[in-house]
Amino acid sequence: MTALLLILSVISGVFLGKHFGKKEKLAKNLLILSAGFLITICLNEVFPQVYAAETGSSLGIFVIIGVLLQMILEALTKGFEHGHFHHHSDHNILPAALMVGLFIHAFIEGIPLASEEHELSPYLWGIVFHNLPISFILGAFLFNRKHESKSAPSYPSLLIVALFALASPMGMLLGNYFNPDLQPYFLAIVGGIFLHISSVIIFESNKNHNIDWLKIGLVILGVSLALVMHLFHDHSHLEHHH
């Protein structure tokens, strides 16, 4: 079920990107919505789990490692994760580099899923909501290029989509072989990745630094969705223990 949701989130996003990819405003709005959701999941789910672990104060270093790792990965992906696809031409971003960057990013996010107690956890939904806009942008980039045939997409494009879709499930599979005591460290790294991506999307400067009410509304909506899920998850968790 978990792996299926992860794969479907990528395929759905790519499909939407292929057919609606020229609507950059839609992609940006999806990203802002997902950023509000993601930062809330990060602060209400990921970090409490990380700091509840009795492993000393070194976990903060792993959060910083996650932030730095995401900065390095963005050198490969050119900022796909926060909507910078419209700045690229076909010549200044290599599909191979994009594939490597996105694969590592999604693979690492999948590792903590192996130790999640609940199958449909807020952490999983955080990844799903995060995958949709990235996949939308990926589909728009890969399948709307001048040399890309509308009727028969090229094998490299399909390979990139397939690897991205399978990366998190593969990370989850590998996570089953790790010592469960390492879970807080992987969560801390992913927390750093989530924090960096969501904060960049939310705090990017608006034109002329005017108040963007739509952006604020979308962030609030994303936060609200994550809070509802968090409260529902907490409630069901308590019922489970009773």
TrEMBL record:
<feature type="transmembrane region" description="Helical">
    <location>
        <begin position="155"/>
        <end position="178"/>
    </location>
</feature>
<feature type="transmembrane region" description="Helical">
    <location>
        <begin position="50"/>
        <end position="73"/>
    </location>
</feature>
<feature type="transmembrane region" description="Helical">
    <location>
        <begin position="93"/>
        <end position="111"/>
    </location>
</feature>
<dbReference type="Pfam" id="PF02535">
    <property type="entry name" value="Zip"/>
</dbReference>
<protein>
    <submittedName>
        <fullName>ZIP family metal transporter</fullName>
    </submittedName>
</protein>
<feature type="transmembrane region" description="Helical">
    <location>
        <begin position="26"/>
        <end position="43"/>
    </location>
</feature>
<feature type="transmembrane region" description="Helical">
    <location>
        <begin position="185"/>
        <end position="203"/>
    </location>
</feature>
<dbReference type="InterPro" id="IPR003689">
    <property type="entry name" value="ZIP"/>
</dbReference>
<keyword id="KW-1133">Transmembrane helix</keyword>
<feature type="transmembrane region" description="Helical">
    <location>
        <begin position="215"/>
        <end position="232"/>
    </location>
</feature>
<dbReference type="GO" id="GO:0005385">
    <property type="term" value="F:zinc ion transmembrane transporter activity"/>
</dbReference>
<keyword id="KW-0472">Membrane</keyword>
<feature type="transmembrane region" description="Helical">
    <location>
        <begin position="123"/>
        <end position="143"/>
    </location>
</feature>
<keyword id="KW-0812">Transmembrane</keyword>
<dbReference type="GO" id="GO:0016020">
    <property type="term" value="C:membrane"/>
</dbReference>
